[in-house]
User: What shape does this take?
Amino acid sequence: MVSQSLSESLNKLHQQRITVLLVMSALLVVSALMGLAIGPLQIPLAEVVSILYDKLNPFVQNQHERVNEMVVSSLRGPRVLLGILTGAALAVAGACFQALFRNPLADPGVIGVSAGAATAAVAYIVVGQGFLISIFGFLPKYGLPIAAMLGALLSVLALYLFVNRKNGLDVATLLLAGIALNAFCGSVTGILVYLSDDQQLRELTFWTLGSLARAQWESVTPAFIWSVIVIGILLTKGRALNAFSLGEANAYHLGFNVDTIKRILIIFGAAAVGAAVALTGIIGFVGLVIPHIVRLLIGADNRYVLVGSAILGACLMLVADIFSRMIVQPAELPIGIITSLIGAPFFLYLLRKRRQLGF
Amino acid sequence: MIKKLAYLSFFYFVITQCAVIAAERIISIGGSITEILYEFNLQDKIVAVDTTSQYPSDAQDKPNVGYMRTLSAEPIIALNPDLILYLEGSGPAETIDQLSQAGINMVMIPNEYSIEGVKNKVGLVADAVDMQEEGQQLISNISAQEKQLNDYLSDIDQQANVIFIMMFDESSAMVAGKDTGADNMISMAKGKNVVDNFKSYKPLGAESITQLAPDYVLTTERAVKSFNNKAEILNTPLLKLTPAAENQNIIVMDELLLLGYSPRVVNATNQLAEELHSQ
Assistant: This one.
């Protein structure tokens, strides 16, 4: 009798969560459409929809105004896809790092993983490219994203090795380590800026504050496929993350291979952040704000938190990008400014409320 | 009949020519290009400029598409331009590609740091907006000024040691090395850039600057905005121990005039040369 009512209420909870996730998905579709429809160039919604319909349907060939079609399909299209990709990647990586470090304030930007990726990208441009050309005589195709991912990986590893049982797993230690890592990456970037020539310097300005403005199909498409794989793998680890939140020993006793899961979280979390940073530069606080909002909405079960973070992260990025396009037009505000504007106060709020929230 | 045909072909010629040239909505990316367009009295056809377009001051009232190196395609397309004149180095490259894909006539203007380079710029801009005559006029004006400048400079043989400071704080200064607009400007005015061991701009500390021992400090109005007077600038730890500070030799010039390589280039050189060789 008792177990029946328990399973009933669990079932109800499951349904509630699914409903919330479905609402979020609808929100994502709406924000993606808004991302395609809103921009400095005013295109009627009906025409945007008809252009989309024609693009997706090879049998129809309607005539559209060339410029409108070009703006929707080759400017806003890749931009929206890039927004979805980076938003989902950063939010899911944030949720994973929060579980891995058992620290609710672990955001790829705050703890220095994004900075590690960006520094590696800068190093690749200033010294790596010349080095590779002198050895192989050509540049490998995905050198820059690979460098960014390696940079992210190194950062997570360094943090993980530092924040272990011996040094303390408390919230402050990781944040302080993050400050140190951010400062270190900043100074390495400073050295590289000093070494760079004019042309390289122009490339570098891009990484300091993130932007989706450089999105093009040829770079976004492979990154999207890659991110779908990486995020997909991370999404299957919800159950393991739940066990992790009880402590490593308990997770082990629940039958999880703790070391393997840690490796997966570190490697794929870094891969997600690196891929995003390689295309957009540093966009902060998405990985912090989103998982927390998702937890407020559907509870702390990581199986749902991860999926919800992916969807809501994409939404936030798309909406923030619309603002970045519209606020100071005809110029453009880097999207990193907008996410930090939302995220930094939220971070302080969490810090202040941390006793009530229990960390 | 033949007369009729001749008229017709004349009109045809005029119409086709107009179709090719009549740029009615121009976006100008680069301060010197904007200046040239104003020289041609085309200000009413400029629909937007970039942040480096500060002269003449009217240009600052135009819609602004942001910094020339961080342009974004869609807001520019939304302004519906039929000609974009952009200085070499504008970007990012993706944006330039996207703008040409949108079918906008894009004309890149090379930015060469010399008087010859400025004349070249004027010629290219004149071609793009089909004002060759005005272009020739402006070029010959510049040449006339250049001749005067050369006459003036030919009497001067000593070279003044100059350091150019782009901006500075308490501990370091962004200093022009070789291959920069400032470096060329200094040599055109018969000065010598004391920095000759690196290219482009790098930050230098007080000790390096003291060791370089410049006789003149050249800097921009923007860099010294927070100071009250020249003595105050020279009294900062960065500059205090230089011969320039000892003799109160500081030259403050408008950034765009000095580094813009615009039609005012000879004026700028003249002004700098007079400051350097007045004693």
The CA atoms of residues 27 and 47 of chain B lie 6 Å apart.
